[in-house]
Records
---
Amino acid sequence: MTNPYIIDNKITNAFVEAYSKSTYRIIGKNKHTAIKPCHWLEQKLMTGRNNRNCYKGVFGIESHRCLQNTPALPFCNQQCVFCWRDNELGNLGRDFIVIPDEPKELVDEMIRHHQDIIKNHLPLRRYLENYEIMADMLYYMLKNSEDHSINSLSKSLHVSKNKIERAVNLLKNQEFIHPSDDSLKNYKLDEEISCCIDSREEVVRLINVSLTTPDEIMQAHSEAMNPNHAAISLDGEPFLYPKLDGLVSEFRNRNMTTFIVTNGTLPERIESLNSLPSQLYVTLPAPNEDIYKKVCRPMIKNGWSKISDTLDIVESLSCRTLVRLTAVKNLNISENYIKDYIKLIDKANPNFFEIKGFTLQARALNINKRLNSEESIQYFFPTYEYLEDLALKFEEIGNFPLIYRNKASRDFLFAINWDKNKDPVIKNP
């Protein structure tokens, strides 16, 4: 069947237009590359503080300076049920079938678009304004003790509902305000604030001490204009891009650290990579081949065997390595599979092992349909508490020291071939 998005081995403008309403930026002459600011980048811009960083912060990666990208956006040799690809287009092919753009041109364009996004789509004025809205909101709630909704706060403060919602979410995460009823639509001020603070000046002081200051917000935006890390992990399988060596070299030449996330089905390309990333992530999607086929729906033969081959070479690589289990409840993770995973991790002997709950957003919301299941999507969603219980069992049975956990990302990091007392922060090249 003819693919309307590839004509004469060239990706069409229709493909770019299909992504135009999202926060993707399709870049490069041949349109196979993209960047996308992640949720945590914006969170960091709101406050500038490390507690608004993603789970990669344990490795010293600052979310506001992280350039999330892919050189193989439309190409992947698997159709994983947990993939959150934002668009209905899906994979345009299991092979890289277009002319590859040059790495230097791609990195130049990535950085230019990243700076444009920070300057024009996530502008400094938005977050300085958010700071003032938070102060006004807390002071208003302090003086008006009834419950407040997004709508009522919007009308009382003469601020749009979108701006109120942004401020509410941050204040709620900081536990300055709480839902006041089961509907989760009304909010009240935290009792420790309402009993101890009286003036707007005290409200501002509280925000400055516990949340952020204008100076920190301005500094974060200034730093964000100069990314120092590239997460080659956005979509597609990066090792399909034939010039990945050059891409990693280009980032290194700009004093940027790099992560590559691979599905592990191209061991020969991993082994032949001359310019290795600062850290290589290998996704371990299943404890055995039968579950692998259900989870990844491979479009290649011997996919599980290829992943096994990749695990065999992990220990020999001269870069830092991490094997990641992307966890889907009632599918690829349970107490019954722990010993199977431990055997595979022991075989690979990476520096780190990670359990991370799959992200329930975008196209991953169709996980039950992808599995032809009548169960709700929540049936497959692993909560932090569920994963924590399993992580402690991994630690006990496998003797893997659990060195870090991140509740917001449902992420658990273990030291394998790594001194558990050694700082895991990555140094700039």
---
Amino acid sequence: MNRGRIHLPVSPVCNIRCRFCRRSFNKFENRPGVSAKLLKPENAAALVKKALERCPEITVAGIAGPGDTLATRHAIDTFEIIHREYPRLINCLSTNGLLLEHYAADLSRVGVKTLTVTVNAVDPVILDRICSGIILEGKIYQGIEGADILIEAQKRGIKKAAALDLVIKINIVLIPGVNDKHIPVIAETAAGLGASIINIIPLIPQHEFAGWEAPDCAALGKAREEAERFLPVFRHCQHCRADAIGIPGRGDISSLIYGEEGSPYASVEETFSHG
């Protein structure tokens, strides 16, 4: 059965600073953290309606950016509307997990069933090489201190979400020479916290990792085998945009939906910041 999805790009800011992440507004890059523009939560239902008219196979409404979905309440407000008006859709959300513990109960209340948390290390020394800092309650934490705060927050959040019966997938960005030997530890930790599945994503060399080599197929395969000792591995991931719509592998119809005359999405101001 073909299952489609609509990604609703409602989250405008991020509260962590990953060294490999370059958020952008454009219409041509196919990768996470990219959207043409932003969508206001109150306009989401109208776009879901348009998308379902063109692609009735859509069964999933997801929010994955372009910022972190829990850095503001925009994602929760959006799902509250979508869950009320389209209760048959499966709601899913991706987050860095910094504020997951705080918002887990709200996510369950607004119909989120599946949750993706990006966990790139559970050792603060390793995570410091990947994440340069976090923003929490208006304060910037850097170095080992920031990494440790993020790791512990992720652990508490995943455990709480699992207790609320959310299905949790762990995303890991595989960075050769940084966290490639750390994959089994991440997987074992995630399994102990209640995660259900793991997804290993190859690094896209950009931003501070622009000169880095992406992992080859052998490195990716090895990492997946090591992770599979602890959790089932998801092997069908694509680098989807934050505004992707349609059936994965069969083309994206986001330009048809978001670019239609009178679309509320087309008029939203382009804006993004790190907190």
